[in-house]
Each structure stands twice: as C-alpha cells, then as structure tokens.
C-alpha cells in the first residue's frame, strides 16, 4: 500500500520544468473552455440555452461523473444513481427548509455528504459481492429509497403530492432564481466538483480504486485496503450524484418528486458513462452531451427539415431510431467510449505525419 | 480513408451540429400577424402514446374545424406546431423553452403541459414568463386558489372534486347523502403522488358523511393485484373507488372479477375512464363505472360539424377513424373548446387579434362557458359548464358517470356536483402553505380588472 502511495506522490512531485510545458499546454483548452462557459455563455445565451440545454447537460454530466468514479474507476457497478440523486435532493431540501441560516453552498455540500453516507451503506454489500450481484443490491436501494421518499411525508414537509419545491435560492444576498444565475450556480458547482474529482482519481485514493477495479484479489494480496477503497468510492460517487440531484431539483426543475429520480435516471447515467467513456472524467461530459443534447438536436433538425410533411408520430419514432443507431455506430467504432475516440482523433491531428 | 478527408468530414458534421443548436438562438422578429399560435406539447411516442394520439387528434380537428368553418376565432385563424415530450420532464421543459417566445409574431396565449410532472416543473417558470398553464382534470389541487397561483389553471375537476363526485354518485345510488353513513368505501389507488392526492379530501368526506374510508395502495405499474383484491374480499367494502393509471386499471377490473367483487360497484377515477382502460379487461369489464368530464360518443352536434368539415374533407389528424368520439378524442375537443373560448373572452377585451399570455390569463379568469354557449358550440352533454374567477381556477367541479357495456361507454348519470364549499378550506390551507414557503403575496380579488 505504501509503495502505491509513494508512486502517486512521486507522480505529482515529478513535475520538473521539462514536463511543465506539456502540462500547461494540456490545461489551455480546458482554461479556454471554462472562460467560454463562465464569460461567453452568459453574454450570448438566452433562457432557452440555460434552461433547456446547458443546465441539464451540466447536471447529468455531474451525475455521470459520480457514477464514473464508482463504476469507471473503482469498478463497482451501480444502478443506484437515481437513488443517490434523490437522497441529495431531499436532503438539501430539508436542510434549506429546517436550517435556513445555512448558506446555499453549505446546504448543497451537506446534502451531498448525506447522499454519500447513504451510498456507503448501500455499498456495504460490495465488500462481499461483486459484478451483477452488486447491481442487484444497488437496484434494491434504488427502489427502496424512491419508495421511502414517496411514502413518508416528513421528507417532503408533508406536501400531499410528495413533491419538493425549491425554496428561494439566495446566496450572499443575491437572488439566484434567474436562468443565468442558476446556470452559473450549476457551472460553478460542476467546475469545483470536477476539478476535485480529477485530482482525486490521480491521488492515492484513485490508484486504490483502479487497483481494485483491475483485480481486487491481486490488490488485496499486495496490501491495498480493498474494503476502505470500495467504500470511499461509494462515498465519493454518492456525494457527487447527491449534489447533482440537488441541482436537478432546485437549479433545473424547481419542483420535483421522487419519480424524477427513478430507475430510468440511473440507466441514463450509466449510458452516459458507457457512451462517453468509463474511467474518464471528460467521458462523463462527452457522454452527457451525447445522451442529453443529441436528441434535442435531432428533434430540431427533424422539425426544420420534415415538420408538417411527415406524420409527427412517425417523425418522433424515426429520431429514436437514428439516436439508437448512432449509439451502436459509436460503440462499434470505439468500445472505450467517445472520450477515447476523441483522444485518438486528437493524437492523429497533432501528429499528421503518421498515416 | 485519408485523414484529411476524414477531418473535413468531421468539420462538416461539427458545422451541422453547430447550426442546429444555433437555430435555438434565432427568434423571429416580424410585424404582428393576425394569426394565433398554439404550441402543442405532445406524447406520440413512449409509454402513454396510445392515449396521447387521440387527444391531439381531437384538439387539432377542433382547431381545423374552427379555421375551416368559422374562420378561426373572430377572424383570427389558429396555427400550431408540435413538440414531442414523451410525457417526460426534461423534454417537456426543453419544449416549453423552445415555444414560449411565440412564433411568426404571435405570442403564446395558453400552454397545455399534458403531463403532471411537466406541469409541476413549469409552474414557476410559466408564472415568471406570464404564460397560463391549463391542466384539464389534473395538476396541483392547491392551484385552484388563483390568488397564489396566477398562471396555473387546474380547470373543471381537481383531484379533490373527483373524489367528491365519486362519493356523491354513490350517495345518489344509495338514496341520499344521509345513507352514506356506515358504508364501507375502499379507494384502490396508484401508489404515487397522483394516487395519494385524493386522501385528504376523502378523509374529510368520510368524517362529514360517516362512511368508512379504506385506502389500499397498488405499487406502480400494478401488473399483479391479487393481494389488494384479496384484502378487499376480506374487508367487503360496499363500493370501490379505483384511482388507476395505465395498466393498473384493466388489471384491477380483471382481478376484481376473479375474486368475485361486483364490477358494477367499482367507480373508476378520471384517469381510469377511457376505452383503453377497460377494453383489455375483456368481457368481465361489463358494468364497470367511471367518472369523466368528457363522455364518449360521436353523436354530439359538434361531432357532426367536425365530420362534415374535417373528417370528410380528409383534413383530420386522426389516423385510426375508430377513435372518433372516443373518451380521449373527446377530451381533446373539450380541451380545445376551453382554450378557444378563453381566447375569445380575452379578444372581447383586448381586440380581435393574437393575444399574449397575460391577456389570456384575464380571459381565463373571466371565462364563463354557459349552457347557452355550449349549445351554440354543439357540445351539450359533452362539455361541462365552466366559470372561472381570480380566486377560483377550477370552475366546474362537475362530472358525469359512464358505464362500460362490454363494447362502448354509455352515460348513466347527469352532471354531478362536487362538494366544493366543503373542500375549499383544505385547498386554501395548502395554497397558503405554498405561498409561505415561496414568499408569495397572494393577489387580492380587487386585482381582477387587470
């Protein structure tokens, strides 16, 4: 274990001046992207872009990221993403409701911590079972938690429809209810969480996760703390999904009930990382772009091209056919996900002499 | 493949993607047109498509009829486009954002979410954008209090009124409300926010009339209900109020018949009252009762007009002509009548032109669909009377009961009035709680002029 730790540490310390420039160059596109997202988008975007495109995209990317830490990095397959998101949403709601003096970021983070704690409990069986059997236990959590939030009125402050509705979003005196403000809230959260996650997967914890994923027996033999590694992965994954769930409820929809976080949501997160790329931070974002944005694009293109000429129901089904076909094509072209596809493309572009 | 061509191709794909997304940014800036835009949020695919398709057909056929036969509303023709939601929230929100700016110069007067979760998610967005949401027989019950919810209109029959009309129908059957005392009435409900919504109302009604209120949940989707109906056999209720959703309804009817509960003592709720809900149950469904505000039938005068101007001229949106006059088709007509009459009312104040959401809200809050007006439209017996006001966004609170004869529905009751005065304090209490939580100052009735 100690050897892995020092490996990880030396990897960070080894950033000698020689290696600095590639690192900076690698960081440049990300910096440009962040600048565009923080400055450019609010300047040109309108309600449609924030409410319908950017906010859901960022939140689902975040949920994908949470699952990616758990499933892509630590190898613990989970269908509990929806349940963790619901936990985060309901926990944050109750914190904001019952402890109104807490600032918004603290409520969000604490909601994430509660979701993480619940995820750890859900992850306890992972110490004994793995693979498809673990999926079954996380599936149980998915159903149990959704049912719990629907069944017990306390979670929704006895709202008769069991739905929770965002209290006014205020931070440091600023009203965050406008689309731009909600977008910036989502973006800031996503940025911070992603940077921490990117750091985390390169740290000792991340290496432990990878070791467990690649072969947990071997990892245990060389002294990697397997049990702790699995549970930290569940905590980290649950935390991020919880934050995503809270944002989904408050920054995106405003009013949700537990149905918003049903099994379909868990599958959606899983598709995001399978299509985007397991074990890749960028993959979560690329996958979310594919799963969330492509159907919208298809619908707009189809509407502009055939609207009125083709029966509306047929047109919708056709879009689903095209979307499904694209998933299959991309997965055949690159089973490692779109992130790997893009990385290969990037390598080819940067070295044009070869092939 | 040479990498250059590959790169070009990728660039081309990226450009197309960019253009497509960019289309969302452009908005038409043209001089006002004398045409009224009505966006339709549809679900023609997905789990509920079979009920959605006849609804849009009813709506679009009525619009087409107005345009063809009456020249629109006061000369303002209607035009519409569809945005597919698959009944889901994200697509619904995306559609809402896409259409809310209006089209070709016409603003959006009224929006139908046509899905409970979409309606909930849009409540605050629509209030901020000043676009009224009209939800026929569903939606937040507390939105009946229009002082707190200025842009939500759960018209005709809220879930509370639905429960109350069911109880009042039972009262008619047993010979008066005083005979309800001592009866056992079991509610078999879809275990979801929608299913639980009637519980506070039934609690109060049970206390008031002295019947025993039994609540039996069915987990989604409700494919197997032997446990629930086994319990019913033990408890022996006099009546069962069935608040189903999707496949739950036919399974309930079938299981009831199997366990020996008389099907003609089951009263389906508003979302258990279509042909699609009972036909799969087969022959045992005969005698099943259900509550509706849009009885089935193709013999209303409005159907003759639609047949003449729309169906026979080949302009109908209906693919399967068998659905003409079905419950869902007729619900589309009722939806369309309420929307167009609200626009007509607003035009009376603001002029014969395309109107916007704020003006349409005024139109809705001054809407009065009288028996006489319903007769002019040709929808007597189909369309309930409806009078809305600033503090009452429900209006009717009336419904009829229909009975399945094995092949089609027949109407077996006149319009039954819910005990709205009894239930209103419950609604006001919830609306006040919402206002407190959200920091909303309720409008006063004096605001009704603007």
List keywords for this structure.
heterodimer, A: 355 residues, mainly alpha, ABC transporter involved in vitamin B12 uptake, BtuC, two-stranded antiparallel ribbon, two-stranded antiparallel sheet, 76% helix, globular, B: 450 residues, alpha/beta, Rossmann fold, 2 domains, eight-stranded mixed beta sheet, two-stranded parallel sheet, 15 helices, 14 strands, 43% helix
Describe this protein's structure.
- The complex is a heterodimer of chains A (355) and B (450).
- Chain A is mainly α.
- Chain A is built from 14 helices and four strands.
- Chain A starts with a helix and ends in a 5-residue tail after the last helix.
- The N terminus of chain A is likely disordered.
- Chain B folds into two domains: 243 residues, Rossmann fold; 134 residues, Rossmann fold.
- Helix content of chain B is 43%, strand content 14%.
- Chain B has 15 helices and 14 strands.
- In chain B, the strands form four sheets. In chain B, strands 5, 6, 7, 8, 9, 12, 13 and 14 form an eight-stranded mixed β-sheet that branches. Chain B has a two-stranded parallel ribbon with strand order 1-2.
- At the A-B interface, helix 3, strand 4, helix 12, helix 13 and helix 14 of A face helix 1, helix 2, strand 2, helix 3 and helix 4 of B.
């Amino acid at each position: 274990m100690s050897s892995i730790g020092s490996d990880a540490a030396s990897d960070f310390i080894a950033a000698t001046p020689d290696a600095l420039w590639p690192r900076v160059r690698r960081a440049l596109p990300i910096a440009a992207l962040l600048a565009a997202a923080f400055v450019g988008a609010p300047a040109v975007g309108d309600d449609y872009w924030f409410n319908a495109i950017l906010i859901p995209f960022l939140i689902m990317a975040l949920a994908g990221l949470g699952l990616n830490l758990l499933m892509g990095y630590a190898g613990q397959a989970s269908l509990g993403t929806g349940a963790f998101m619901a936990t985060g949403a309901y926990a944050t709601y109750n914190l904001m409701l019952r402890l109104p003096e807490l600032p918004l970021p603290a409520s969000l983070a604490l909601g994430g911590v509660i979701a993480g704690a619940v995820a750890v409990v859900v992850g306890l069986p992972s110490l004994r079972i793995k693979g498809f059997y673990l999926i079954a236990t996380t599936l149980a959590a998915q159903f149990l938690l959704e049912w719990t939030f629907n069944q017990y009125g306390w979670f929704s402050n006895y709202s008769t429809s069991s739905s929770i509705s965002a209290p006014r979003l205020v931070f440091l005196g600023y009203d965050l209810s406008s689309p731009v403000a909600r977008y910036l809230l989502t973006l800031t959260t996503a940025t911070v969480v992603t940077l921490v996650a990117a750091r985390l997967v390169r740290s000792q914890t991340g290496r432990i996760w990878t070791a467990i994923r690649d072969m947990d027996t071997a990892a245990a033999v060389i002294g990697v703390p397997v049990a702790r590694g699995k549970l930290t992965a569940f905590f980290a994954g649950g935390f991020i999904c919880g934050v995503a769930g809270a944002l989904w409820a408050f920054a995106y929809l405003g009013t949700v009930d537990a149905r918003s976080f049903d099994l379909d949501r868990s599958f959606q997160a899983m598709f995001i990382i399978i299509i985007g790329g397991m074990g890749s931070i960028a993959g979560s974002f690329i996958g979310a772009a594919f799963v969330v944005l492509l159907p919208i694009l298809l619908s707009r293109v189809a509407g502009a091209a055939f609207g009125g000429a083709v029966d509306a129901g047929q047109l919708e089904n056709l879009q689903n056919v095209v979307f499904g076909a694209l998933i299959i094509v991309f997965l055949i072209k690159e089973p490692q996900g779109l992130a790997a596809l893009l990385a290969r493309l990037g390598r080819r572009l940067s070295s044009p002499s070869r092939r | 493949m040479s990498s250059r061509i590959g790169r070009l191709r990728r660039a081309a794909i990226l450009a197309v993607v960019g253009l497509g997304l960019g289309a969302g940014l452009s908005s038409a800036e043209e001089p006002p047109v004398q045409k009224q835009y009505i966006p339709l949020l549809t679900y023609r695919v997905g789990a509920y498509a079979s009920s959605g398709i006849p609804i849009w057909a009813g709506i679009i056929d009525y619009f087409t009829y107005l345009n063809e036969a009456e020249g629109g509303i006061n000369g303002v023709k209607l035009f519409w486009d569809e945005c597919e939601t698959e009944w889901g929230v994200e697509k619904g929100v995306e559609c809402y954002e896409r259409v809310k700016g209006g089209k070709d110069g016409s603003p959006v007067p009224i929006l139908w979410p046509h899905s409970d979760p979409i309606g909930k998610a849009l409540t605050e967005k629509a209030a901020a954008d000043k676009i009224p949401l009209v939800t026929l027989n569903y939606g937040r019950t507390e939105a009946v209090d229009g002082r707190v919810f200025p842009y939500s209109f759960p018209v005709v029959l809220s879930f509370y009124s639905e429960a109350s009309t069911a109880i009042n129908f039972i009262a008619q059957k047993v010979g008066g409300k005083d005979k309800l005392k001592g009866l056992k009435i079991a509610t078999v409900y879809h275990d979801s926010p929608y299913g639980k919504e009637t519980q506070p109302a039934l609690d109060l009604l049970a206390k008031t009339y002295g019947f025993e209120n039994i609540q039996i949940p069915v987990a989604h989707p409700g494919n197997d209900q032997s446990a629930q109906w086994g319990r019913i056999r033990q408890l022996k209720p006099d009546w069962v109020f069935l608040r189903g959703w999707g496949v739950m309804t036919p399974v309930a009817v079938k299981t009831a018949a199997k366990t020996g509960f008389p099907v003609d003592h089951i009263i389906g709720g508003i979302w258990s009252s279509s042909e699609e809900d009972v036909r799969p149950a087969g022959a045992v469904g005969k005698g099943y009762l259900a509550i509706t505000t849009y009885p089935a039938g193709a013999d209303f005068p409005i159907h003759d007009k639609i047949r003449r101007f729309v169906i026979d001229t080949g302009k109908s949106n209906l693919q399967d002509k068998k659905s003409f006059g079905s419950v869902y088709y007729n619900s589309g007509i009722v939806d369309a009548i309420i929307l167009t009459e609200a626009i007509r009312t607003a035009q009376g104040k603001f002029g014969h032109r395309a109107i916007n959401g704020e003006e349409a809200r005024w139109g809705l809050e001054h809407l009065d669909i009288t028996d006489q007006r319903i007769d002019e439209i040709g929808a007597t017996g189909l369309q309930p009377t409806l009078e809305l006001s600033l503090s009452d966004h429900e209006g009717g609170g009336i419904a009829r009961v229909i009975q399945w004869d094995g092949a089609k529905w027949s109407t077996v009751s006149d319009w039954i009035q819910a005990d709205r005065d009894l239930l209103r304090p419950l609604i006001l209490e919830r609306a006040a709680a919402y206002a407190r939580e959200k920091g909303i100052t309720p409008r006063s009735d004096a605001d009704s002029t603007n």
